[in-house]
Amino acid sequence: MSDENKKNEQLEQYRTDDKDKKLTTNQGVKVSEDEFSLKAGERGPTLMEDFHFREKMTHFDHERIPERIVHARGFAAHGEFQPYESMKEYTKAGFLQDPSKKTPVFVRFSTVAGSKGSAETVRDARGFAAKFYTEEGNFDLVGNNIPVFFIQDAIKFPDLVHAVKPEPHNEMPQAATAHDTFWDFIANNQESAHMVMWAMSDRAIPRSLRMMEGFGVHTFRFVNEEGKARFIKFHWKPVLGTHSLVWDEAQKLNGKDPDFHRGDLWESIEKGDYPEYELGVQIIEEEDEFKFDFDILDPTKLWPEEDVPVKLIGKMTLNRNVDNVFAETEQAAFHPGHVVPGIDFSNDPLLQGRLFSYTDTQLIRLGGPNFHELPINRPVCPFHNNQRDGYGRHTINKGQVSYHKNSLAENTPEPATEAEGGYKHYQEKVEGHKIRARSESFKDHFSQATLFWNSMSDHEKDHIIQAMSFELGKVESESVQQQVVNMFANVSMDLVKPVAEAIGVDVPEAKDSNVTKSSPALSQANTKHSPSTRKVGVIVSEGFNGEEVANIIEALKAADLQPEFISSSLGKRKGTDGVEVTVDHTFLTSDSVLFDALYVVGGNDLDKKFKQDTSYFLIEAFMHFKPIGATHEGKELLEDHMHGSPGVVAESDSKTFVKGFVEAVAKHRHWDRELV
């Protein structure tokens, strides 16, 4: 039986369908009445002996567990991982040995700063946590969609989170970094410069979770059967490419659909458009540890892909939605310390702190030490040890022995040898004085921030300038504003000068920077572009050109686009030739920000209100640089300045239109479009 089937079978015993069942208590006693509590007379007091009422209310009173301090807003899905080739040369990890073997996975995506009820398209880093249920135990790859972090040492993590969260005196703002305490922290903890560049870039507002890169952030080790170790970094590369929203669009989506990202993931899996990500690793030989102009253990630094190529080693496919968000997504317990033989740690000081804190977090969230026994967290392989009791214990241990060493149970369970699969830590020689200090090699805070800036396309640089101007424009302290601007003069004056002018502070003196290097892999301009699964809003009215439009719609579907019809009201819209379409959305219930592109069909019955609503949709989509298509009467609805603009396809010939429109959609955005 495959690991995937084992995990599904394991979870199956916990699944329940209450349809057509009799109501019972949690002890299985059938309940005869669930409308009224037990009373002394119809108008008398409720009796303490009403065990059903007590059980029902007690459970309700305790239905909420503490939300995660960070990454509270999350959504998840099940899937599988399959390697492309054996990685035996690099690691003895069992799930990376056989390219025919599939390993079940559970992946949780999340925002970082907001509460559980916050919106999803805020500007923020995104969590990308994957749990591999391997035959050797669970491996958790707990990462983000940004390859670096704000701080270098875990002791500063509470400070960072306190600064980024709503300010304690008024509990505002929610799920946002555009406030004084965050930027005060940045100005006074300048190791954050590189991460801030990513957070102010388009990477912080992804188009969807399906089009978002993931990174392990830290430096880990692969260790092979011979005990040879290599430094590695983990990468997730989305098969659809890495794409983002624009800021105005992201803000509007927070109001129009605060569940936009989870809805997109859920619908894609339900439709069978399974999200896919390739797992890659960067590998550095131990003897090359000090051959770079940065410290490879510094979590505020990345390894440029041009210097250390990413080797793609397998693919993950998410193919099943959760059955219950609380039982699975919310109770999932991830931990970077959950590794399997063949994967080990480095001395990255931020990683070392995370290895301590995650267990502590799960203890308070999930009520005790047995969170590993919850169905979503249970490994597919058996586990045996002398741990006993505690909150939430599911295992019923037999026998009198609960300690090691022993003779009463013949000293079992006994440790496994390395040959038997026992985990053996990499034997790294460590020596030195006990000291609270940081390596000199960690003290360059600006070179890679400049590298990131140099790697951006012109429109990406403009977006960073706009984002920083917006964020600092919300800061009330002029002193903090000036400190931040002065700090980022170390990155680029081309960034700082327009920001300083936008927020009304002094332009600082130029700092000397000799960083001219760039990394094309960092720019989303160089990602994969595909029309696949893009959602197209088709604006239609009565009397449209039936057969020809129907053929266009079928051609768009054949190109893996997803047309959805928009009109003034729900119901059917009749075209010529007896063609009818079913309206999916109205102008009132939808918005252009909910679609990747618009296709305007129109019809022969276009009243003033239809034209006004269509105009609003088109103007907004045009401002967001989205592809726009128009045929037949729809061409007359385009604004004058749209005709001939990049990404606007208005054709009479249907085949020419389909080809041009699909190509326009594949480009995602048309940045060279001039706004009028």
UniProtKB/TrEMBL annotation:
<dbReference type="InterPro" id="IPR018028">
    <property type="entry name" value="Catalase"/>
</dbReference>
<keyword id="KW-0560">Oxidoreductase</keyword>
<feature type="region of interest" description="Disordered">
    <location>
        <begin position="1"/>
        <end position="28"/>
    </location>
</feature>
<dbReference type="InterPro" id="IPR024708">
    <property type="entry name" value="Catalase_AS"/>
</dbReference>
<keyword id="KW-0376">Hydrogen peroxide</keyword>
<feature type="region of interest" description="Disordered">
    <location>
        <begin position="511"/>
        <end position="530"/>
    </location>
</feature>
<dbReference type="InterPro" id="IPR029062">
    <property type="entry name" value="Class_I_gatase-like"/>
</dbReference>
<dbReference type="GO" id="GO:0004096">
    <property type="term" value="F:catalase activity"/>
</dbReference>
<dbReference type="InterPro" id="IPR041399">
    <property type="entry name" value="Catalase_large_C"/>
</dbReference>
<dbReference type="InterPro" id="IPR002226">
    <property type="entry name" value="Catalase_haem_BS"/>
</dbReference>
<dbReference type="Pfam" id="PF00199">
    <property type="entry name" value="Catalase"/>
</dbReference>
<keyword id="KW-0575">Peroxidase</keyword>
<comment type="function">
    <text>Decomposes hydrogen peroxide into water and oxygen; serves to protect cells from the toxic effects of hydrogen peroxide.</text>
</comment>
<dbReference type="Pfam" id="PF18011">
    <property type="entry name" value="Catalase_C"/>
</dbReference>
<protein>
    <recommendedName>
        <fullName>Catalase</fullName>
        <ecNumber>1.11.1.6</ecNumber>
    </recommendedName>
</protein>
<dbReference type="InterPro" id="IPR024712">
    <property type="entry name" value="Catalase_clade2"/>
</dbReference>
<dbReference type="Pfam" id="PF06628">
    <property type="entry name" value="Catalase-rel"/>
</dbReference>
<keyword id="KW-0408">Iron</keyword>
<dbReference type="InterPro" id="IPR020835">
    <property type="entry name" value="Catalase_sf"/>
</dbReference>
<comment type="similarity">
    <text>Belongs to the catalase family. HPII subfamily.</text>
</comment>
<feature type="compositionally biased region" description="Basic and acidic residues">
    <location>
        <begin position="1"/>
        <end position="23"/>
    </location>
</feature>
<feature type="domain" description="Catalase core">
    <location>
        <begin position="24"/>
        <end position="412"/>
    </location>
</feature>
<dbReference type="InterPro" id="IPR043156">
    <property type="entry name" value="Catalase_clade2_helical"/>
</dbReference>
<keyword id="KW-0349">Heme</keyword>
<dbReference type="InterPro" id="IPR010582">
    <property type="entry name" value="Catalase_immune_responsive"/>
</dbReference>
<feature type="compositionally biased region" description="Polar residues">
    <location>
        <begin position="515"/>
        <end position="530"/>
    </location>
</feature>
<keyword id="KW-0479">Metal-binding</keyword>
<dbReference type="InterPro" id="IPR011614">
    <property type="entry name" value="Catalase_core"/>
</dbReference>
